[in-house]
Amino acid sequence: MTFTQNFTAVGDNLALSAVVALIPILYFFWALAIKRMKGYLAGLSTLAIALVIAIVAYKMPAEMAFMSASQGAVYGILPIGWIIITSVFLYKLTVKTGQFDIIRTSVVSITEDRRLQALLVAFSFGAFLEGAAGFGAPVAISAALLVGLGFNPLYAAGLCLIANTAPVAFGAIGAPIIAMEGPTGVAATEISKMVGRQLPFLSVFIPFYLVLIMAGWKKTKEVMPAILVSGVAFALTQFFTSNFMGPELPDILSALVSLFALAIFLKFWKPKTIFRFSSEQELAATSTANKLKTQDVKHTGGQIFKAWSPFLLLTGIITLWGMPTIKLALTGHYEGANAILKAINSIGHALTFIPNVPLINNKIINSAGAPIPAIYKLEILGAAGTAILIAAILTKFIVGISWKNWLVTFGETINELKYPVITIAAVVGFAYVTNASGMSTTLGMTLAKTGSLLFPFFSPFLGWLGVFITGSDTSANLLFGNLQKITATSVGMDPVLALAANSSGGVTGKMISPQSIAVACAAVGLAGKESELFRFTIKHSFFLVIIVGILTFLQNGVLSWMIP
Predict the structure, then answer these.
(1) 517 — pLDDT class (breaks 50, 70, 90)
(2) DSSP label of 355
(3) 10 Å Cβ neighbour count for 340?
(4) How far apart are CA 161 and CA 209, in angstroms?
(5) What is the distance between the alpha carbons of residues 31 and 54, in angstroms, rounded to a whole number?
(6) How many whole angstroms separate alpha carbon 329 and alpha carbon 395?
(7) Radius of gyration (C-alpha) of the chain in whole angstroms
(8) What are phi and psi of 394, to 5 degrees?
(9) Whole-prediction pTM value?
(10) CA nearest 115: which of 235, 213, 259?
(11) How far is the C-alpha of 538 from the C-alpha of 499, rounded, in Å?
(12) Looking at residue 183, what DSSP letter applies?
């Protein structure tokens, strides 16, 4: 049995089909933003609605729809859920052993100001993790760090999701850009150059926007020098690396330059007032003893290094895991002569399972008449979560926790995250059903009908929609990249600009993606509060994608000299 995707399945009408395809998305918005449903209930019910529409309206065989959902659910558990479990576990180890108290003190020694801590941790450190690992690791780890520093959990999660806007297009060693080259035939280096002429504008703006959300205009002006150092250092490095070095390193190098530039700057410059949240102001006014105690705590360089070493190990191991040659070995695909990599390749091969998805592998036919492969991709050793677990194992020896308490903490982490993992599995399953049935392409084709005048503005909205549905800029680029190229050519728009717009627009959808919301809530202990976080981020997502739309519209006209 085969199933041929029909993008005008409802009444042989594209507009009517798009209205029907929108139902699961609109329902999900309603469930979280209005009904304030728990995340796992919203995810499971959205998946159920998508299955019904795929089967009834899009005429997809029921068994194929359910197998497609299973493919997404498996991907939601590994690698995404695995990253969340191991990230939170590593953080909990540092808390249980008292090392996080030292980390908190070391950050406070740079600055006690919450505005500047957000720039250091959510923006710069989060961007580094995005560049090295991608998926949920940057939001999970940086949000947990902010909570440990004393941030409100909802604020910490929301700020990290918004901060993650700047680096997503070049995340995971450039995966979103590199992935687009295959289906479109446009060189990744050319797409990288164009994205590097769009995102730096956002990268300069995001630090300012973060602080504005936190503190308001008056308090933002107080730290404008630090905001400029953080944003300009990141943006200039992002432009240079993306245009002259390719898509692999912009995030890692931009984040490091921004992090060190701000840390060094804060050695010579301090804000006139120290900003804390309103709940902390009262505490600071009534507890002088606690303030003096915090000031009197001094730690040696060795103690600080030991406390940070789990995250330094994490950074190093994740960076290694992301290197192309090592990644091949970890997944059992290395064919070189290096003896060490060959040994790793043997282990990676043994721990990599890529079985076909029954009933749907090469059984779904796309619009070009080509069968779509469907596999359960279980690369256990190559998963970023495994890299984080290795860091957690090494951390056991560094912090001196017993194996018994190590295992107890791991069990506690799994128990705490059971509902968030269900949420992630459900929403990724929903994404796969939407893609396999053709619903997402129906929506993309509808946006592409906006014409030569408006399509440049709406082009980033395709990427935004793709990331909202799939949770991944890489997946959104694979989903809509070729559609962007074909439509751009037909309306007289430069295809490279349209492809870049898909990726740049996609980054603004990351903060409202169901799986990103679930990841962030899981990391800060807000399981079941996904609706609150969604309500926090949705307005910022719309605002930022409109900015990218306006920029793309201008680059298609008066700023066309910016296109490489």
Answers:
(1) confident
(2) P
(3) 9
(4) 13
(5) 20
(6) 24
(7) 23
(8) -65, -35
(9) 0.74
(10) 213
(11) 24
(12) H
